[in-house]
Write a structure and sequence with these properties.
The protein is mainly alpha-helical and about 110 residues long. The protein is about 55% helix and about 0% strand. The chain has 6 helices and no strands.
């Protein structure tokens, strides 16, 4: 774990929490191949934030950051806007179920 955590620039505790709380087969790499969402969702950013919401040691700070972005009028941080058109899924080189992840993110998203 130490080598992996170091190479990813995260603490061992956070890496352990990641593996305990997140389905790592559904992690977005942030490559951006999904393209521009027709609903304006910043897909890699939202999926990264959703992952962090599931990690206990990162959850509170992530929720605060999301709330600050929304309060500042930043757009693209509304996973509930996903229409499940699946255009992004067709482009994803990792075959992520993006619409499913957006639905799950919506359930955990701070308001």
């Amino acid at each position: 774990f130490y080598h992996i955590a170091e190479s990813l620039g995260m603490s061992v505790q956070r890496l352990e929490e990641l593996y305990e709380n997140v389905d790592t087969s559904k992690l977005c790499t942030g490559c951006g191949y999904c393209g521009e969402c027709s609903e304006g969702i910043l897909i890699p950013d939202v999926l990264d934030a959703y992952t962090n919401l599931l990690i206990p040691s990162a959850s509170a700070s992530t929720a605060a950051a999301i709330k600050a972005k929304i309060a500042a009028g930043e757009e693209g941080y509304a996973p509930s806007a996903c229409s499940a058109c699946k255009q992004c899924e067709e482009k994803c080189p990792n075959s992520l179920p993006v619409s499913e992840l957006m639905a799950a993110a919506s359930e955990n998203w701070p308001s």
